[in-house]
Amino acid sequence: MAQPAVSSGTYSNPVLKRDFPDPSVIYGQDRYFYVYGTDGGGQRTPIYKSRNLTNWRPAGAAFTEASRPKFVAGGATWAPEISYINGQYVMYYSLSTWGGEWECGIGVATGATPNDAFTDHGKLFISSEIGVQNSIDPCHFADVDGKQYLFWGSFRGIYGIELSADGLRIKDGANKFQIAPRNTIEGTMIYYHNGYYYLMGSQGSCCSGASSTYHVVVARSTSLKGPYLNKAGRPIMTSPFDVMLQKSNKVYGPGHNSEIIKDDNGKYWMLYHGYQASNIDAGRVLFLDQVKWDSNGWPYIEGGQPSATAEAPVFTTYEAAGIENINAQADDEPTITLAGQNYYQISAPDGRTFTWTVSDLSGRTVRKGTASGIKDLWINELSNGVYIINAVQGGQKVSRKVVKCE
């Protein structure tokens, strides 16, 4: 009999201490996890990577200012949803302005790698075209029969529709169907487990700091299209959902959970955002918790609240960097990532301390410093030209050639 993998110890929440709402996570073909979120300005869609769901490092952004979606005038990109379909990474996104509930919509982009510069394919639909007010918060679901679906909505009902096989358009002749009523949830996530489709979503106010009432609720069905029932067996079209996760005195507004990930010991995990009571100004930071299943097959979080410290997930099946995977980055190397125009992030794993320099092509050092974890490096004040950014940590050195331009 195979023995369970050995636990890698414990972890502490939050697992990413920066504003990173609306997380969506995927296990990449390179055997890293990648998480995508909403950035403060809704422009770039930041990406982080991890071996274990607990230690995250910057991995770029899906869009630049030039490439970001623009089919909604003045729209911001919110709530990305990442999937892998037919050999490419497919990202669905919301494009919206506050209050523009009939002008907002959902688009789709693709990438060859999970942290590639994604190619935008434009809108799938806007609210007025599909006939669903506030068409945001996409959720992709590949059913057990291989059909692709998109679910979406925000407090104006949750709807679904079948997609083409490549996931890039609505299937010809497909009609939308409703699975949840108005004034209930947003941030939909659907997960299939032991014969049931579990519909998770978030209720309450998402974005009001200590006053946020966001919390995660759940219902389930034996059919993807419903009806979805609560624990009492009543349809959620007319009856309430059941609460799965709610605030504590240390975390406010936990919600908009990610996809569920199963680790090598058969345990289930989900990411979500929330406000840390001790640092509200950090925004909606990233949390991780184990999803357990009760005797009736319902998912729950231990205690119904975010954990502070818990046993870490176990992942031992990835290929190590080096001989087995010559193109993989060693886990103890720092990384240098383009995060915006003239803006780079230097990071070291596990919050380690590193030194960094910026040099011109003659080798002259023009900037230098020491940092721990992540260094936000802006080069706006430098003259236009080519520079080399170097980062050194624990004997590991990486370099990146960069161009400063207006």
In the CATH hierarchy, the architecture of the largest domain is: 5 Propeller
- Count the helices. How many? 1
Task: Determine the CATH topology of the largest domain.
Answer: Tachylectin-2, Chain A
- What does the radius of gyration come to? 21 Å
What's the SSE pattern? EEEEEEEEEHEEEEEEEEEEEEEEEEEEEE
Number of domains: 2
Structural class given helices, strands, pairing?
Answer: mainly beta
Overall form:
globular
User: Given this structure, which CATH class of the largest domain is correct?
Assistant: Mainly Beta
Q: Please mark out the parts with pLDDT under 50 across 5 or more consecutive residues, or reply none.
A: 319-330
Number of strands: 29
Can you put this structure into words, describing what you see?
- The protein has 406 residues and is mainly β.
- It folds into two domains: 11-311, Tachylectin-2, Chain A; 335-404, Macroglobulin (MG2) domain (Immunoglobulin-like), CATH 2.60.40.
- Helices cover 1% and strands 47% of the residues.
- The strands form seven sheets. The chain has a seven-stranded antiparallel beta sheet, with no helix packed on it.
- It is globular and about 70 Å long.
Overview features:
single chain; 406 residues; Tachylectin-2, Chain A; Immunoglobulin-like; 7-stranded antiparallel beta sheet; 1 helix; 29 strands
